[in-house]
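Quick one: examine the sequence and fold tokens given here and explain what the tokens say about the fold. Here goes:
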Amino acid sequence: MKFDSVLPVIGEFGRYQKRVYILLCLPAISCALHKLAWVFLGAKVDHRCKLPIESVDAVFNELPSGYLFNESFPWDGQREMWSQCLRFDNTTGATISCGGEYVYDKRKYESSTFIDFNLVCEERKMMHSHAQALFMAGILLGSIGFGDLSDRFGRRPVFFLSLVLQVVFGILAGLAPEYFTFVIARMVVGASTSGIFLVGFVIAMEMVGPTKRMVAGVVCQYFFTAGYFITAIFAYFIRDWRMLQIALSLPGLVFLSYYWFFPESIRWLLARGRKEEAVEILRKVAKENKVTIPEEMYEGLCSEESSKAGTNILQVFRYPRLGLRAVNIFFSWYHQLVIYRNRLYFKIHLNVISRFVNSGVYYGLSLNTSNLGGNDYLNFAISGAVEIPAYAFLLFSLNRLGRKAVLCGCMLAGG
């Protein structure tokens, strides 16, 4: 007897499942904080060269007495403003670089990595985009690495390992004295978000019955949206980027308390042949849900189809269709998949493109709300608010219209 056969008996979404589901959805808020915080951690501001006569507390839109902007900085015709990266030499009048010293406009943002690490002008401006790119690379590596580790060593230890890494390296990123330490720490944080969100999602959903999984899968995304709003609130009240980074990391300490009452995955235990432990957890589930499971059902419970040892990610490719789906997921983060196999090629190709485009558009819009003008915090909050009716639409339409119609319709509506 497979584990899915037990779910209708213990309840497809009973009291136990609801409790575990909510507890495991809450860390999604923490993941959202880190994934979206770059809008404020790396906020760009206007800047100009610091003149030799100016002190460290120079003001962006003011020059020392006797100095004029047209005599101190060349005109940038492309941006239609005074140059941000060049100035005139006081003695020769030649155009020279800023020499690594800048004055920033701190009227909107008092502090950011852009300011503290001087991620400006030709020699360092690419480092600003590389910081977030490496964070996303960490998410990709974490998706693969922590997924494999959770299959080898269990969902529970990997989940808590990810939590510890997120807290420790999140705080380290806030204390980083220079750029490279910050980037490496943030990359580890990015990887940890995959371990927390993906592993937690798997554990939460595996206990939900088939008829409830669609609703549970969509509602989980509302917790990520809640993280959207909380990020805006934190950033509004905490204007120092280092304190903001640390503040976004500390909530992870609360989730470490799960260690004392959070069970291992029943499916994983069965897959590893640890039937006694799985049955013990099932008894607790039945007790909390106030149902009785016949003893013959416990005895007839068999291991999930998986080898007890030597499991690795390459075993996915033992099954052609599962292998093709896995490749689809892997490359949806990176580039288009090219598999020439009649109609199957066409379906996979379209699926890869849709995932690639959706991820690019989602994070492209979410991480660039500050470019819209107006109030950055309000723009960011509105960007998160639009997800609320979107998920409500999914709850209403997925089972009624089908996945394909909803996906294609939303792609067309989104342009």
